[in-house]
Design brief:
about 450 residues, alpha/beta, 2 domains, 4-stranded parallel beta sheet, two-stranded parallel sheet, signal
Length: about 450
């Protein structure tokens, strides 16, 4: 092993590009890199790249990694879902100028050796390149999560792209990647940046990435949907990266057992991990209380089934990865159980415990927020969100919110809605004419116009 660590040896260089044949020893080379990285990690000198595949149970896995992974040091201060503040809602690789040596240095300066990449792809070019680019990745171990592709997609629609579920026709539009036909396709409790990432550092320019072999594209760093279509060759390369370079692929549907493979690959404190294996983190739970989203049966089971079949056909590469990942997880956990009696005991234990949810903040209802009686949020004829807020005159007098907007200011009069602008947001910053007819996009859903979906209420 020492000669690998000192010289970065590989049998032959690897290049990934259009029309390039995959070398016969690709799987061997990637597995060798994984072994080298694992050795660095076990010595306490490695780095961890957690590729968080969105809406696939990654937050629960982050919780487990943070509290039970041996040698793992995530940046705790101002972090969210294992992402340091500096890279939140951003592709960390882009932020670092695609220099992964710089990325590793910055992570160490922040006091960590592990992080989550949620709004960017895996650095496949570096993993499959030749020379220094590949050698720079020799200290990185990789972990990821995976979930049934349709379940992952449906969950994302429920929490982040609710307009796609307004009708079965809207669902078909989103599966086909034609989100622009819906107008604002993101949920009223969400924002385009929270779905795709901050402008300039996004996972992709289009939400269609989530319905077009999302897993495969993230593994290959093929997030430009205007590029050439994915091929069987691409799928084989993605599968090699997923199964040979990843130290663990955690299947969310079998989270408690699947995560046990970490005990034998990177090291897991089983005592600390035991309760976390049965803890499910649902960061978007509070959003559900704000919206009335139809179920599959309400949209029409037969119609949804037809759309799902089109989704499955379109995402055949992702389904291939998912089914192979389930088999791989079982094999790795079984092998680990043979090596570790504690893992064997956990693996053999009946998984009948009720999945616990992490403590969640108390969520205010629409009535609580706006002073209504049986208030509701509905989609208007033009696709915008309309708040219906029945209330008495007494409720109106006590509420901070007025549906009537504001009158033109007279000399000496205060800025419209000054009492309800949140800290850091003012009329001039959000509503000045230089931002155009729709105002400053960074001010959406931050003021008294909380649910208008366009301009703040007092612009």
């Amino acid at each position: 092993m020492s000669m690998y660590l000192s010289h970065g040896w590989l049998p032959m260089p690897l290049i990934l590009g259009a029309g390039t044949a995959v070398p016969m020893n690709l799987s061997y080379a990637l597995q060798l890199d994984r072994d080298v990285a694992t050795e660095w990690w076990r010595r306490g000198r490695g780095m961890l790249w957690f590729q968080h595949l969105r809406r696939g149970g990654g937050t629960s896995l982050c919780n487990l990694l943070r509290h039970a992974l041996v040698h793992g040091e995530f940046v705790e201060e101002r972090s969210e879902a294992c992402q340091p503040e500096e890279w939140k809602l951003r592709d960390a690789s882009v932020v670092s100028g695609h220099n992964l040596t710089t990325l590793a240095t910055e992570l160490r300066l922040l006091g960590g050796n592990a992080f989550s990449q949620e709004y960017g792809a895996l650095p496949s070019r570096e993993l499959l390149a030749r020379g220094a680019a590949r050698r720079s990745m020799r200290r990185w171990v990789f972990v990821t999560n995976i979930r049934d592709p349709w379940s992952r997609f449906w969950s994302q629609l429920r929490h982040e792209m609710a307009p796609c579920l307004s009708t079965v026709q809207a669902l078909a539009v989103c599966v086909a990647g034609q989100h622009q036909r819906l107008g604002p396709w993101w949920s009223p409790t969400s924002h385009i940046d929270s779905v795709l990432g901050v402008s300039g550092f996004r996972i992709s320019a289009s939400p269609h990435i989530y319905s077009d072999n999302y897993y495969t594209r993230m593994l290959l760093n093929r997030t430009d949907l205007n590029g050439p279509p994915l091929t069987e060759h691409d799928y084989e390369v993605a599968k090699s990266i997923l199964f040979q370079r990843m130290s663990a692929v955690i299947v969310v549907e079998d989270f408690a057992r699947s995560a046990l493979q970490l005990a034998c690959t990177l090291g897991l404190n089983l005592e600390a991990a035991r309760p976390l294996l049965f803890t499910q983190i649902r960061p978007y739970q509070e959003h559900e209380a704000m919206m009335d989203i139809p179920t599959e049966s309400e949209l029409g089971v037969q119609d949804v089934t037809a759309v799902r079949l089109r989704f499955i056909e379109r995402n055949r590469f992702d389904y291939g990865l998912y089914h192979e990942a389930k088999k791989l997880s079982e094999i790795r956990v079984a092998k680990c159980a043979r090596q570790n009696p504690d893992v064997a005991a956990l693996r053999a234990a009946p998984m009948v415990q009720e999945v616990k949810k992490a403590p969640e903040p108390v969520v205010a209802s629409l009535d609580d927020i706006f002073g209504c009686t049986n208030g509701s949020l509905e989609v208007g004829p033009d696709g915008s969100y309309v708040l219906y807020c029945p209330r008495t005159s007494e409720q109106a007098s006590r509420s901070w919110w007025s549906p009537l907007g504001s009158h033109k200011r007279r000399a000496g009069q205060k800025v419209p809605g000054e009492h309800c602008w949140r800290e850091g947001f003012k009329w001039g910053f959000c509503c000045d004419h230089r931002y155009g007819p729709y105002g400053n996009k960074d001010c959406h859903v931050v003021s008294c116009g909380l649910l208008t979906g366009s301009l703040p209420r007092f612009c």
